[in-house]
Specification:
It is a single chain. With 412 residues, this protein is α/β, with parallel strands linked by helices. It folds into two domains: 10-257, Rossmann fold (3-Layer(aba) Sandwich), CATH 3.40.50; 262-408, N-(1-d-carboxylethyl)-l-norvaline Dehydrogenase, domain 2 (Orthogonal Bundle), CATH 1.10.1040. The chain has 17 helices and twelve strands. The strands form three sheets. Strands 5-2-1-6-7-10-11-12 form an eight-stranded mixed beta sheet, sandwiched between helices. Strands 3-4 form a two-stranded antiparallel ribbon. α4 (119-126) packs parallel to α5 and α9 (259-281) packs parallel to α12 (321-333). The radius of gyration is 21 Å and the shape is globular. Bound molecules: 1,4-dihydronicotinamide adenine dinucleotide (NAI) and 1,3-dihydroxyacetonephosphate. 1,4-dihydronicotinamide adenine dinucleotide is lined by residues 16-21, 48, 84, 113-116, 118, 139-142, 172-174, 360-362, 364. Residues 11-190 form the Glycerol-3-phosphate dehydrogenase NAD-dependent N-terminal domain. Belongs to the NAD-dependent glycerol-3-phosphate dehydrogenase family. Keywords: NAD, Oxidoreductase.
Length: 412
């Protein structure tokens, strides 16, 4: 067994404490307990600090102490995230830490679970402050678009911190997983060969050469930092051991190597879920929803093949949880779907609905629709992705949701 002889254990930090971040902390904490030979028994969870008032219907409500309190302090006292994941007990080996740098400083595994718009700033604060040989897994769903092009969030994290970053994504509505209802997920983890214990050979691949840049048309400028090999004292971060960190009896993990496919599935399905919400909000029924899902899946596959041609496998979208399966679950019960539907039904903007009903949780589909549109425009390819373009134009009020059938009809 490869872990024999390893004297040190992997320490894990979950960077984020929202609905999915807290759920991720719970399942990872259960797994570190189940694998004490591999993992340190404490899981750090970075909490973006805010003041919370414990609601009256919470089991933790105390009338003698109903003043606003720090979220991290409440979490560490009651082992429940009363704001973002109420009524779910998180194991006591999760420590909520409001100090980002302190929460990550000696961890070898960083699990990023933040809304994607916050990733760049958070990574900036961590540069030079983490273990140089740390590995990351990105559970965030989104893309990073700038004037230089488009990057996966895993690329944004990996390039910013000069570490390897894989991705976890699937048909994963957090509240169901927090209640330990069965679901599947996909973990893409494919570090370059130098991750073996041998000293880095001369001329071995750099982060940018191997997996931190999509060799696609829109190539971002990369820092060509050499990845640091994991020291011999740690158990290897093989597929087998990475799987042990995430797999639960109620959360089944399939390991793959296609980081781009897994990341893009998670990001682009959020745009499709908005379209599904728009047509459902019009009262058009399940056939209409299926139609936008079909067109959206085709655009997702096309996007991957067009812009990440050397890395994306089409089968990732069709065969793994992070593809069609995530489109299906997100278009049935996800927040993007529900808020888009409510926006049409109430005649309000989805941005207003997000503020009113999500209690601080964030939609990812709206900003992703804008980012993908900025990128498609820069490539002159808006017309090739009519559903993605329609969603952007609905958000911008340039077209109406009722126009969707005409807009996605193939042009002769
Ligand atoms: N909730 C779900 O069912 C799932 C979510 N995801 C993805 O996970 C990612 C994180 O989502 P959730 O954990 O659900 O978060 P959330 O939407 O429940 O909560 C928002 C989080 O952002 C934090 N935040 C607010 N302002 C911030 C700032 N300036 N800097 C840093 N953090 C700030 C809040 O404290 C909170 O933890 C998203 O990309 C989402 O698409 C993926 C699968 C399932
Ligand atoms: O990613 C998700 C399910 O897989 C959750 O989607 P929402 O952010 O739309 O709730």
């Amino acid at each position: 067994m490869a872990t024999l002889g390893a004297q040190r254990k992997h320490k894990v930090t979950v960077v984020g404490s929202g609905n999915w971040g807290t759920t991720m902390s719970k399942l990872v904490a259960e797994n570190v307990k189940a694998n004490p030979n591999l993992f340190d028994q404490t899981v750090q969870m970075w909490v973006y600090e805010e003041e919370v008032t414990i609601p009256k219907d919470s089991r933790h409500y105390d009338p003698s102490n109903d003043k606003p309190q720090k979220l991290s302090e409440v979490f560490n006292r009651v082992h429940e995230n009363v704001k973002y994941l109420p009524n779910i007990t998180v194991p006591s080996n999760v420590v909520g830490n409001p100090d980002l740098v302190d929460s990550c400083k000696d961890s070898t595994i960083l699990i990023f679970v933040l809304p994607h718009q916050f990733i760049p700033r958070v990574c900036d604060q961590l540069v030079g402050k983490i273990m140089p040989f740390a590995r990351a897994i990105c559970c965030t769903k989104g893309v990073d678009v700038s004037e230089k092009g488009i990057r996966l969030m895993s690329e944004a994290i990996g390039m910013s911190l000069s570490i390897y970053c894989g991705a976890l994504s699937g048909a994963n509505i957090a509240s169901e997983i927090a209640q330990e209802k069965y679901s599947e997920t996909t973990v893409a983890y494919d570090p370059p060969p130098m991750d073996s214990r041998a000293p880095t050979p001369k001329g071995s691949p750099t982060a940018s050469q191997v997996d931190l840049i999509s060799p696609s048309k829109p190539v971002p400028s990369a820092r060509s930092a050499r990845l640091k090999a994991l020291p011999n004292e740690y158990p290897p971060l093989s597929h087998e051991n990475v799987r042990k960190l995430f797999h639960r009896p109620y959360f089944h993990v399939r390991m793959v190597s296609d980081v781009a496919g897994v990341s893009l599935g998670g990001a682009l399905k959020n745009i499709i879920a908005l379209a599904a919400g728009f047509v459902d909000g019009l009262g058009w029924g399940d056939n209409a929803k299926a139609a936008v899902m079909r067109v959206g899946i085709l655009e997702m596959v096309r996007f991957g093949k067009e812009f990440f041609p050397d890395s994306v496998h089409t089968s990732t979208f069709t065969e793994e949880s992070c593809g069609v399966a995530d489109v299906v679950t997100s278009c049935m019960g996800g927040r993007n779907f529900r808020c888009a539907k409510m926006a049409i039904e109430r005649g309000e903007s989805i941005f207003e609905i997000e503020q009113k009903v999500l209690n601080g949780q964030k939609l990812q589909g709206t900003s992703t629709a804008y980012e993908v549109n900025t990128f498609l425009k820069s490539q002159g390819l808006e017309q090739e992705f009519p559903l993605f373009t329609a969603v952007y134009n609905i958000l911008e009020k340039n077209v109406r949701p009722e126009d969707i059938p005409e807009l996605i009809e193939p042009k002769a």
